[in-house]
Design brief:
The chain is built from 9 helices and 2 strands; from the N terminus they run βαααααααααβ. With 234 residues, it is mostly helical.
Length: 234
Amino acid sequence: MSSLVENGERVTAPIYVYELPVRLWHWTVALAIAVLALSGWLIGNPPWAAIFGQPYDLHLMDDLRLAHYIAGYVLLVGLVGRAYWALVGNRYARAIFVPRVWSLRWWRALRKTIRWYLLMERETDKEVGHNPLAQVAMLVVFLFGSVFEVITGFALYGEGAGLHSWASRAFTSWVIPLFGSSQTVHTWHHLVMWYVLIFVIVHLYMVIREDIMSRQTMISTMVDGWRYFKDGRP
Ligand code: HEM
Ligand code: HEM
């Protein structure tokens, strides 16, 4: 039954929306992004050079870079696995990859969501999967941003890993010439972190706000997979 229900339909019974792989992916990637952003920011702005002693005794930068690279691999494997699940999972697993822009119902729901966020609607439609605005943000800001970070990150990683490493052959060989220099790749990799972090900040605000104000559950849905509707009305 769940796979037949669309946003805006008249539903009251709980619906199983996010399958286990999507939920595991969500929380693993959230942790990986937190580690990447914190370690990456400190790699770009190392504050302690002369505070805790000699850097060559402490290996702090080594540890930070190791944490960054481990989380980087987690993000890479996670994105590939998530793309696979979009192909084999339920319809809600595809939502962030393929917003239904060909459907008039989708555009109506998008307009209504924007008006709802601007406090111009008293209540929204019921949303079974992500609302259309969330889908667009997840694709254009989160997915495009993270894929860019993976490509530029592994291009930088390949420089250190050596000419014969897989990362150097797969990414460094064309990414550095494309941007012109390693420094330019560093700068873009750094800037796009903020692009991804803007998504995270707005996302946190939105899921908490919608958990309180919308007509369905939010945060618990990303924990147990089930969407519950708060009022008995269709
Ligand atoms: C770095 C941190 C985070 C990132 C990058 C992130 C990213 C995402 C992405 C990409 C999705 C879409 C999932 C899919 O369909 O595959 C999503 C959904 C969701 N996330 Fe997060 N998330 C983060 C943190 C959090 C946190 C801390 C919470 C809880 C407070 C949360 C709650 C949710 C919820 C409830 C949904 C489903 C929203 C809906 O049904 O429309 N996220 N998140
Ligand atoms: C959302 C994901 C990511 C974020 C937010 C992020 C963030 C950052 C930041 C802010 C820097 C410092 C750039 C500078 O100012 O020079 C950095 C450096 C770096 N990142 Fe990432 N990164 C991400 C993903 C990745 C991935 C997937 C890899 C692949 C292994 C990676 C590898 C690197 C490397 C090799 C450096 C340079 C380290 C150095 O110069 O010592 N990053 N990252």
